[in-house]
Design brief:
single chain; five-stranded antiparallel sheet; Alpha-Beta Plaits; alpha+beta; 29% helix
Length: 119
């Protein structure tokens, strides 16, 4: 089986990953943060999802704020020909919409800074 030069050239762009950071607000009484993170990690393209706890949380326990750091592999999106590396914002917007669908997530806001780095 031989690989064509065109196939190899298409693979070159797949060595990049996106790093995004945002504010994740959840309802811990509806669903534990660990379960929400598990669902986030299962989303297409997510390779790493971790949180940094913020001080001075809501005493009522109805909202919990964390900084969410994600590492996104754009390969599944680019391979589908729906997205390209030039559409990193659209890929992050898609992931944001998917996170908002997760039970227990009240809000997610990403910074506009998407870092594209070699894997």
């Amino acid at each position: 089986m031989s690989i064509s030069i065109i196939q190899l050239l298409k693979e070159v762009g797949f060595e990049k990953v996106y790093h995004v950071r945002g504010l994740l607000i959840t309802n811990p009484q509806e669903r534990p943060l660990g379960h929400i993170l598990s669902d986030i990690r299962s989303l297409l393209g997510i390779t790493i999802a971790r949180v940094e706890e913020l001080p001075n949380q809501d005493e009522s326990g109805f909202t919990y704020k964390n900084i969410l750091n994600l590492k996104i592999d754009p390969y599944p999106f680019i391979k589908s020909d729906e997205f390209s590396h030039y559409q990193s914002t659209e890929i992050v917007d898609y992931i944001k919409k998917e996170i908002q669908k997760i039970n227990g997530v009240k809000s997610i806001r990403f910074s506009s800074d998407i870092k594209i780095q070699d894997n």
